[in-house]
Design goal:
Elements lengths: L1 H37 L4 H8 L2 E6 L2 E6 H27 L5 H26 L16 H9 L7 H25 L6 H19 L5 H19 L4 H8 L10 H17 L10 H17 L2 H25 L8 H5 L2 H27 L11 H10 L4 H11 L3 H27 L6
Antiparallel strand pairs: 1-2
Length: 437
């Protein structure tokens, strides 16, 4: 039974990696399209499209914003909801559920956040751009895993697990940074209303409510709207809502196996009706199988499996298209040597691998944690550079950090070039290593 459980976990992880790697390619294509469009003769249409006003009306409540605003505050809340589902799954039954295995990549993720922030502040402390210290802190898991997948068996499977665990811990850190440091003036009434909706969601979990529409109604129509109006970034509502989704089954594995065997036996005993369609009795048995399959799966995993492709192949490429369109300046050298671009660029391309590598070496020297089977220092170095691909989360924090468009453009330039450099260096370092056996 334990072996079967481990096999299922490996299959789920492999499917997760497949979605991330394929999504990374699409994300890259969307970013290239955004940059090309913003620097083409049709650049005005690019900016005009995202500035198009959109108004949502719910009863007497009206919310207005640009298309760019709704992508970043609305659709990205769905991305953060899926991030929350992934985090909860990992904490409940994944890599983060075993402290001994998780301590090294989680600590490496923390080191990989602190070093880039410190490097950024070396260039921007005390100035108007100081608020951008959170931009180079996060790893783009889709891009990083996508690049690693191109290497095939040149990287051991344990390294993919290490990178994924590091990036998930990184996501959690980024969410906390957004919640505590990139929040505008608070509306206490709306914040309390949002907390009340959160309490309803938590209560539904404790009472065994498993209907996704319950969580959609109180999580999106309720808590997300209240958080949006409160001043706390609405994407935080996505993460909090995800942590209220039930992560337990109504039927354990032995009971599920026994019931499915009975259903299959009952189906086999029924006489075929000789038609392309099923008989009513056959259909009834299948419906019972479907109902038991639902009882044997957690709502958390069903939602994650259903929403993950939508986010990876829809939300994130759209976000990249809307946010990667930085116009190349007339003086590119001057823009690249601005304190913001240097801080972001060096934070991602240098601070990330330094923070990760030094943290791992320190903990391994102290005898704390294990890197995994087949992982060498060369693998850790290459992976550290891949973790310097910031992109999605870095672009997102950039929008929150700077009200000044000029600073945002400088940061975008640093993000894009540093992510390209870090990904290329990481790929080349890992490619020259011997194949895994």
């Amino acid at each position: 039974m334990h072996a079967d459980h481990a096999t299922r976990r490996r299959r789920a992880f492999a499917e997760f990696l497949h979605h991330q790697s394929t999504g990374g390619i699409l994300l890259f294509a969307a970013a290239v399209c955004g940059m090309a469009w913003a620097n083409s003769p049709w650049r005005e249409s690019y900016h005009h499209l995202w500035a198009h006003p959109v108004t949502l009306t719910m009863g007497g409540l009206s919310l207005s914003g640009t298309l760019h605003h709704w992508i970043n505050d609305g659709l990205m809340a769905l991305f953060f909801f899926v991030v929350g589902l992934e985090l909860k799954r990992e904490v409940v039954g994944g890599e983060l559920s075993r402290p001994r295995d998780a301590i090294l990549p989680v600590a490496a993720g923390l080191g990989g956040m602190l070093f880039p922030a410190a490097l950024y502040l070396l260039f921007n402390a005390g100035g108007e751009a100081e608020a951008g210290w959170g931009i180079p802190m996060a790893t783009d898991i889709a891009f990083a895993v996508g690049v690693m997948s191109l290497l095939g068996d040149r990287v051991p499977p344990a390294l993919k697990v290490f990178l994924t665990t590091l990036a998930i811990a990184d996501d959690l850190g980024a969410v906390l940074v957004i919640a505590f440091f990139y929040t505008s003036a608070l509306s206490l009434d709306n914040l309390l209303l949002g907390i009340a909706f959160l309490a309803v969601l938590w209560g539904g979990n404790r009472l065994g409510v498993r209907n996704p529409w319950f969580y959609a109604l109180f999580g999106i129509a309720g808590m997300w709207t209240a958080f949006l109006l409160s001043g706390i970034h609405a994407t935080i509502a996505g993460v909090l809502a995800a942590f209220t989704i039930p992560a337990v089954t109504r039927m354990d594995e032995p009971a599920f196996v026994a019931r499915i065997k009975r259903h299959i036996a009952a189906f086999a005993e029924l006489e075929p009706n000789g038609k392309p369609t099923l008989s009513e009795d056959q259909l009834m048995v299948i419906q019972r199988i479907e109902a038991d399959c639902e009882r044997a799966a957690t709502p958390l995993q069903r939602l994650e499996k259903g929403l993950h492709p939508l986010v990876v192949f829809g939300v994130l490429p759209l976000f990249a298209l809307a946010n990667a369109g930085v116009e190349l300046p007339d003086d590119p050298l001057g823009a690249l040597t601005s304190p913001v671009a240097l801080g972001v660029g060096l934070g991602l391309a240098l601070g990330k691998p330094l923070g990760i590598g030094l943290t791992v070496l320190l903990l391994m020297g102290l005898g704390v944690g294990r890197p995994g089977t087949g992982i060498t220092r060369g693998h850790l170095t290459g992976m550290g550079f891949l973790a310097g691909i910031g992109f999605t989360m870095s672009l997102f924090v950039n929008e929150l950090a700077f009200p000044d468009p000029a600073l945002r453009e400088q940061a975008k330039l640093g993000i894009l070039l540093a992510s390209l450099l870090a990904g290329t260096v990481g790929f080349l370092l890992l490619r020259r290593l011997p194949r895994s056996t």
